[in-house]
TrEMBL record, chain A:
Keywords: Mitochondrion, Ribonucleoprotein, Ribosomal protein, Transit peptide. GO terms for biological process: apoptotic process. The keyword Transit peptide applies. This is Small ribosomal subunit protein mS29. GO terms for molecular function: structural constituent of ribosome.
Amino acid sequence: MLKGVASLVSRVRKLDPGHLRLGTQAPQSLAAQLDNQVSFESPRAISCTNENDPAKHEEKHEGLHYNLPLQDVKTVFPHGLPPRYAMQMKTFNEACLMVRKPALELLHYLKNTNFAHPAIRYVLYGEKGTGKTLSLCHIIHFCAKQDWLILHIPDAHLWVKNCRDLLQSTYNKQRFDQPLEASVWLKNFKTTNERFLSQIKIQEKYVWNKRESIEKGSSLGEVVEQGITRVRNATDAVGIVLKELKRQSSLGIFRLLVAVDGVNALWGRTTLKREDKSPIAPEELALIHNLRKMVRNDWNGGAIVLTLSQTGSLFKPRNACLPQELLGKEGFDALDPFIPIQVANYSPKEFESCIQYYMENSWLQHEKAHTEEGKKELLFLSNGNPGQLERLCAYL
Amino acid sequence: MAASCVSCGAVVSRRLLLRPRVSLAPRQVLWKAAELQSVPGPQRAIAYLFPSGLFEKRARPIMKHPEQIFPKQKAIQWGEDGRPFHYLFYTGKQSYYSLMHDAYGKILDIEKHKNQLQAKGLFSEKNKTIDLIGSRWLIKEELEEMLVEKLSDQDYRQFVRLMERLLQSGAAEEEFVQSFRRSVTVQSKKQPIEPVQRDAQGMAFSTSEGKRKSAKAEAVVYEHGSGRIKVNGIDYLLYFPVLQDREQLMFPFHFLDRLGKHDVTCTVSGGGRSAQAGAIRLAVARALCSFVTEEEVEWMRQAGLLTSDPRVRERKKPGQEGARRKFTWKKR
């Protein structure tokens, strides 16, 4: 109702001529289509760039969208993209990410890492909806292109809540296994890192149970297969994978990127309970325990990029966004020292670019969305927050 | 003449009091003011009941004019022989019909005059239209009061149409027509505009308050800014996660087309999220009045941005479950 109350100062708006053409009948055919193509190209230059290799992204590309080939997306991100972004990708039939300052900063650090030193931890933090997860995806794409081994946990919160079957761990009686989550993760890990699985050999013998064991020298691929097929041992398989990768990354055969989204889940509380209804601490979950060891910087040959997330977090207030608040004392001490990188709302240039991108894909159908005032309204209502802007534009 | 007895407070007729034999009070106290001034008890009572004293002229009771209290009635409308005075008595609404007849007569006169002038060639198109802005026609109740007769809606509408036709035909009968119009005061002059203040750095700002239900808000609007709004020290995107509240905040700026031009800092307390949003909106609109022309202030007032919402929570009544909801009615 509010948007319908027009200003009493009546100004006649001229409809965009391109807009009129789009809705006309068939006989207009080729000439009109060519016209449309032409008018398509020029806005594209404002919001999109042709530079599709993240390694070459620089300051001048800031605010522009670059295209991710869908094939890459299927291999690199089988499970990593946020659901809303995945929907957008499906709608537009292309995956475009915006190049933003925090990602550029991180890329710069990653390009200049010294692999002899212990792995540096980078923590992306910020308000809700500012683009932490997508920045992480940008980094992962870069590392995939650079042929690193990617260890991507899309959302650590999924491992501490809503878990239906908890088994007592075979390896350590005090801990709990999560077969479902572990097997799902192993499948996705296999999709991402196919080529490494045959190259890496394990250096120890592991016994699954009385009848099955795995010998020293067999490839990591076999461990992963075992985990996927025998769901009971999936958690242990994950543990083995993590241990081996950590040990071997220092050797220099490959470079390891550990990317965890929602890392504050590792040190928070869980909603899982034992049969006698007593709560389980995160340490008692085998997956979490192993992941904590992974995130420690006692190995070299790679980097650790982490994201904090309040959205899926348990028992944390809504306005908590700083590392101290979300990680708690324990988590902060465990992750200390780290490099914090803040992800902020869109700058005016980035906002403009985002709107242009939506307009090119004909996402904004409201006639006022093309005008300056419409853009000002959108800017006010979303305050430059990417998540809010996306939700708003979904209505238009 | 009735007067109240001081000791027992009953309204007693003065004549009765003057006759000492008929006494309605335990002690015979004559209501003579001069005597009573000296007696302590009545003195205190007088001081309590008549704080300005008994003889203060300005403290006398103000009574309305008898015309306002007693309704106007018609005098007898026929003589001793039973024959009515007015020629339209048997229509039932004699004053109304005579008024209509007179008005129509005037219209015909004006047209005749115009025809005569045209015939002589002296007619000129003088545009002497009467200014109708700032006044309104009598409403039906006022007309009834004037004519001391009951009218129906159709009668009233017919009357207004005839008056407008009279206006159209010429400006000759101005006083006659103006006697049926009342002036309408202009509302917007009553809107107080906050003065613009300057703070330490020389930035111009203006402050004002707003209320809605039980939420109170105070907003400080800076004249030059980039559209940042802070509520209780928190960014408005985080304070109002719901789109509806942010739309409410946007309304004053969007209306005046000043979306990215002002910075706002406000404090709000009480109420719920909608009430707080409404309170801030009112405060911001009032503060913006000082940066804006009078015409735009009038537009804002007409849009309802400057009126505080009088709706409050209705009280729950006994015998009902809520303010309006009754208990479930069971037939047996």
